[in-house]
Protein 1
Amino acid sequence: KSLTPATTAALQYLIFGSRLSHTAMLSLIPVNLGVAVASFTELEFHMGGFIAAIVSCIFTGLKFVLSSQMLGGRYKLDSINLLYYMAPPSVLFLAPVAAWFEWTGVVTWSISPTRTSLDFFLLILSGVVSFILNVTLFVVLKATSSVTVTVAGNVKTVLVIAASLVIFKNQVT
């Protein structure tokens, strides 16, 4: 996940030829070195997991680079329209995966006698929050850059970890 800003910068350069400032490029070096050290010193390193993480970084970076181009490039879409055009292909890609991995859980949940109307409300609320998150993300993406958004995502991850340490008293080894 921490490699996403560097991956995004590389994709931005490869696809559109845009370059980051020298300062921005230099700021990515410590992050990349940290990921390398963490990967090499991981006791339970698994190449399959590492490849999945790299593929995830590439797809995340690609999403942000292409979204940034759609928001500020030739098309100049607004956040709602971009979400309108991105949602159907996302469903087509994710529906088979969700059906494969989640079908049993969804069926079990839907026929469960302990299911309440609060469960449906929480499901709808989750969708609304996701919609607001995506629109907000595209607004920020249009105002800044794809690399800035991915760096902000890493800051969010650090804050979530810090909150879990404070709230749940998780230990860091």
Note: Helices lie at 4-16, 22-40, 47-72, 79-110, 117-143, 146-168.
Protein 2
Amino acid sequence: CDKYDTGMLFISTDYVFDGKSDEKYTENDSPNPTSIYAKHKLEAEKIVLETVDDAIVVRPSVIYGWDVVKDNFVTWAYKELKKGHSINIIDDQYNNPTLADDLADMIISLIENKYRGIYHTAGSECLNRYEFTLEIAEVFGLNKSLVNPIKTKDLNQLAERPMKCCMDINKITKVLKRRPLSPIEGLTEMKNQLENKREGKR
């Protein structure tokens, strides 16, 4: 960055927090990562902020959208429900799902307006994965009865996940002059994109 006189934008994660607080996490709260992945993300944040003058660190959460190399949570759930498959979804992990397109807009706004520092670039609503999946089914007209709630302990996940990572988005809202999209708004945007794509093929 010094050599080419440029800044750096680093995409981190909400998982830098341990998810043990009942309050929304702000950019001023102290991180406490519990997994190797999150610990490495936090270490990278520190290196970027300490060594690059024009550095931006963004912390999105549960990124979803179309045109991905591999399925994200939404595209996976959509495909399974579309096939009529029953799916088990945890109801005790809370996050702010973030539409990839909206995340891109947030990042562009930060860069164009020459902001610096840490920003929580997450969706505007915190909900659990089961609630989110029901919204996926609702927006795309899929069968909600195929979605079964389970607990995190039922999955035997190797890496520990924070249980309640609700992000405060006031700082990025001031930058955007609007709040980030809610899950319903983001999913509706995905539905519109899908319909527009289908119309384009006709």
Note: Strands lie at 8-11, 55-58, 63-64, 87-90, 94-95, 98-99, 117-119, 127-128, 147-150.
Protein 3
Amino acid sequence: MHSPLPGYQEALDAAISPSWLKTPVVRVDLEEARDHVLAESLIADRDIPPFNRAAMDGYAIRHGDLSTDVPIACDRFISAGTMSDMETPRGTCVRIATGAPVPADLDTVIPHEMSDRGSPVTFQASVEHGNAIHARGSDAKAGDVICPAGTSLRPVELGLAATIGRTSLMVHQPARIAIVTSGDEIVPIDRRPDAHQIRNSNLTMIRSLLETMGGDVTSTRWVPDDEKVTMEAITVEDVDMVITIGGISAGERDAFRGPIDSIAGLSPVRGVAMQPGRPVWVTGTQVNGQWRPIISLPGNPVSALSTCCLFVWPLMKLLHGMSAELPWSTGQLGSETRRNPRRRRFRPVCTDALGMLHVPHWQGSGDLVHASLTRGLVDIEAGSQPMQAGTLVRWLPWP
């Protein structure tokens, strides 16, 4: 008697529990670091900002000297990039530019718009003490961690690295991935298929998805339904992860099962109670004393798309030294949605102008066309009754 298949969360917990190998740490120039994952923390080398900085054009003054009916003398101007050590006499102010250092004896900046811009100047309204001053160290103090290890480097993080003078960074080398597709019915995309054949769209889709996740696809190969050729393909060297597509169901010609079984030293996932994607496997083989994951995706395109997001993405994050947690969000159904009575469903989902979630009609997991305008996957728990519009659900935006 077969054991019941695990649910998604149970299967995911099993998939991320082995000590998978981590990708090597390398140094890259700052200009080449985008989309890499930090292998070190970024530390502020000085206070940020390093001085009391004017947040807008206007007048720097002592708050105690501020008056709305008495003209105030203003005899000098401080621009960004200059420093003034001159004392400001009591009862006077200075003109100041955005980004300029505020003199130590002044504590408030009043924008030009609240004055008559005269000389002397008359202010038309009062402001709070400290107005429009970006205080020294208010963003970070020297020695603070401003970006922790395990962060994916976007333009903002690269800007922070430049702020602290970093011209190069230690990052995790992107995971090198081999993709192996299978099936005698598959032909290359530039070939006209016969009536009983289909083009290899899965390879293009999954390759792009893996690269979006931060991986480096270094090897791709189609194999016929032949175990010897399949074994050669899945034991390729110099990769950190192997992705297979198709060939893991129970059919006589599903040629991945035997070769993977023969090299898998651990098999945390052998099918999941989910729709689509039930046949997904996560196995591992030892390479230099560490576990290299082999993730076997189903062959139907929507199944491959869903399981790549739900299983490959967390493992990719682990290999890059990150948390395996995925960026799930909470949304609200905008229309009634059917459920599967026995299995959790992960369906491509659209959003409307109000941000409501709608599951489009589909023809099954072979129907990739219906997924073309979707924004991510919605998690629909098993049940016999439909989920009504307005129900709160969690959903996972595409990477």
Note: The two ends are 39 Å apart (CA to CA).
Protein 4
Amino acid sequence: EFSVSHPEIVKGMARDYYEAGSDMVLTNSFGGNRFMLKKYGHGDRVRELNRLAAELARSQTPPGRYVLGSVGPTGEFLEPLGEVTEAEMLDVFREQIGALAEGGVDGIVVETMTALGEASLAIKAAKEHPQLVVIATMTFDKGPRGFFTMMGVTPERAISELRRAGADIVGANCGSGIETMAELAREMRQATDGYLLVHANAGMPTIQGSRVVYPETPEFMVDGFRRLADLGINIMSGCCGTNPEHVRALAQALRG
């Protein structure tokens, strides 16, 4: 809804990241599907809000840079774990991704996924637009037995299944700071020689007074970004808690 009420701020976010050195920016459409928007009274505005999110980012895009439409989880579970059928969830993703395509995105990033079934349906919807590059990433936690998504998916299985579903680029985002994400990236690179994307949090957040604070500074994250580059990660940046200063430090470290 911020795209309608505060379009200049949304455009300014895209502009700030391009000026910091980003090759591509994401639209402010994470959670912009019918299931999620309905909870906030905007379930009938999916096309309007997603198309506008894409148009606002596109309006700030310099030549040779790109806009990716951000598509996050629906917040629902497929049958039999939940009550949503595959056909219903596919329709929800088609609605959102179709609007992002109308708004002029260059690709779709299906991100922060934990369930392969849901991710695969989002990829299927995106592949109905052959002009779009399709990226899919999942979120992993590290436990005593290694890395798994909340639904028990390993990095190796995620890469295999997301590729099989049709994703052009796969990877991981969110859930971890740069050091843990570099460890995860090593496992993912060992599982594929294809294109990989990694977006790390600026650490894990804490509550300080009334503020949510992420501890990892741009200077701290730079060493981790260099390790990602050494591993051959093709696309990298920050996720939760990062800002244009993190991107600026990343761009300066890798490009000089």
Note: The first strand starts at residue 24 and ends at 26.
